[in-house]
Amino acid sequence: MNDIFATHESEVRSYSRTWPAVFDRASGSWLYGEDGTPYLDFFAGAGALNYGHNNPLLKRKVLDYMERDGVTHGLDQATSARREFLETFDEKVLQPRGLNYKVQFPGPTGTNSVESALKLVRKITGRESIISFTNAFHGMTLGSLSVTGNSMKRGGAGIPLVHATPMPYDNYFDGQYPDFLYFERLLEDSGSGLNEPAAVIVETLQGEGGINSSRPEWLRGLYELCQKHGMLLIVDDVQMGVGRTGPFFSFEEAGIQPDIVCMSKSIGGYGMPMAVTLIKPEHDVWDPGEHNGTFRGNNPAFVAASEAFRQYWSDDVLEKSTIAKGERVGAVLDELIAEFPAAGGVSKGRGLARGLGFEDTEVAGKISRACFDRRMIVETAGPSDEVVKIMPPLTLSDEELEQGLQILRDSVRAVLA
C-alpha cells in the first residue's frame, strides 16, 4: 500500500490496516483495487451498504437530483427532498407496521441519534441514569460511550463515563438464571443503590459486541419490565435496522413498539451520512433548536432513501430473501463447526448478520486475513475480536453468496487444518 497513508494519516486508522489495499471503485457486492483486483464485500460498510455499492436504482435518482441543482445542504429547512422522505417512509415503512413515530434528524451518524435519544429521555423523565447491557456498542461520543461496554473504546474517553449502569444481556450467564433476575431485583430493592433509570437502551442483535442475538421473548420481557417501572425503551437499530435481520426493524419479530428508535448507516440508502431518531409522539417534547447540528439535513440521502423504500419495501421480497440467505449462511457455519469440533466454534446471529465465534481469540483474525488473501472482505467482532462477522449486502446474488461461503470454507480450513 502507498505509504502516504502511514506518513500523513493518524495512527487511529484501523480498516486500512486490516485490508492492505487501495480501493478505487465499487459496484454491488464488489470492491476493486487500483490495480483492478476484485474483492467480494462481506462487510458492507459496517452495515451502511445494505443495498450494495453504487446501487444503480438509487444512483440514478441521486444524479438526477444533483444535476438539476437540488438542495444539498439544508440544515432542517423544509425541502422537497425532506418532504418526499417523510411521506415515503410513513407510507412504505411505518404505516404497514402499525407504527406511529415522529422523525428527528439529529445529525449524520449513529452516535448523533443515540446522543439525541439519551438527552430526550432525561428531559422526559427528569432522571439521569440509563441502563445499558454487557457487550453493547452505541457510538464513540461521550454519551454513547457511557452506554457502551467495550473497555478499550471506553478508555479512549479519558474521563469517567457516568450516569449509566450495565446489566446482563440475554444469555450472558448461559441460561443459568431467569431473565432479568438481577435487574428486576435491583429495581425493586430500595437498598440496591440503583438510581431510578430514565431509560433502557438495547441492541436486539449486538453487532460490534460479537453478533449476540437476543430472543424475542427476552425483548418482550424487557419491554414489559420498562413499562412496569416507568422506564422508556430505546432500541438502537443503527446497524441491525433497514432489513439486516430480515424485517425492516430488528425488533419486529418480538412484537414490541419501542419508545425511541435510533437509526443510521443504511437508512440513507446509498451509504451517505444520515441518521434519524424515531420518537413516539407523546415523547416529542423538544424545544425548537434544543438539539441540532449543521449536517442534520443530507438531502441527496433523503432522495436515495426514498427510492430505496419504494424499490425494496413496497413488498416483502427483500425480507424473505434476507432470511433465506441468512439460513444458508447459518447452515454453512454449522458445517464448519462440525468439521472442526476441537476449535469450539459457535454459530451466531440471524438474517444476514452472522458470526462464527471461537474460544481461541486469535482464530477469527487469522480467518479474516485468509479471506482477504482469497479476495474477500470480512470483519471481526466481539470484545476480543473472537468472532468472524459476516455481513454482505442484502442485495447480493445467490451466486455471490455461494462464492463467498466457499472462500469462507477455504479460509477456515486453511487456518484450522
Automatic annotation (TrEMBL):
<keyword id="KW-0808">Transferase</keyword>
<dbReference type="GO" id="GO:0019491">
    <property type="term" value="P:ectoine biosynthetic process"/>
</dbReference>
<dbReference type="GO" id="GO:0047307">
    <property type="term" value="F:diaminobutyrate-pyruvate transaminase activity"/>
</dbReference>
<dbReference type="InterPro" id="IPR015424">
    <property type="entry name" value="PyrdxlP-dep_Trfase"/>
</dbReference>
<dbReference type="InterPro" id="IPR049704">
    <property type="entry name" value="Aminotrans_3_PPA_site"/>
</dbReference>
<dbReference type="InterPro" id="IPR012773">
    <property type="entry name" value="Ectoine_EctB"/>
</dbReference>
<dbReference type="GO" id="GO:0045303">
    <property type="term" value="F:diaminobutyrate-2-oxoglutarate transaminase activity"/>
</dbReference>
<dbReference type="InterPro" id="IPR005814">
    <property type="entry name" value="Aminotrans_3"/>
</dbReference>
<comment type="pathway">
    <text>Amine and polyamine biosynthesis; ectoine biosynthesis; L-ectoine from L-aspartate 4-semialdehyde: step 1/3.</text>
</comment>
<comment type="similarity">
    <text>Belongs to the class-III pyridoxal-phosphate-dependent aminotransferase family.</text>
</comment>
<dbReference type="InterPro" id="IPR015421">
    <property type="entry name" value="PyrdxlP-dep_Trfase_major"/>
</dbReference>
<dbReference type="InterPro" id="IPR015422">
    <property type="entry name" value="PyrdxlP-dep_Trfase_small"/>
</dbReference>
<dbReference type="InterPro" id="IPR004637">
    <property type="entry name" value="Dat"/>
</dbReference>
<keyword id="KW-0032">Aminotransferase</keyword>
<keyword id="KW-0663">Pyridoxal phosphate</keyword>
<dbReference type="Pfam" id="PF00202">
    <property type="entry name" value="Aminotran_3"/>
</dbReference>
<dbReference type="GO" id="GO:0030170">
    <property type="term" value="F:pyridoxal phosphate binding"/>
</dbReference>
<protein>
    <recommendedName>
        <fullName>Diaminobutyrate--2-oxoglutarate transaminase</fullName>
        <ecNumber>2.6.1.76</ecNumber>
    </recommendedName>
</protein>
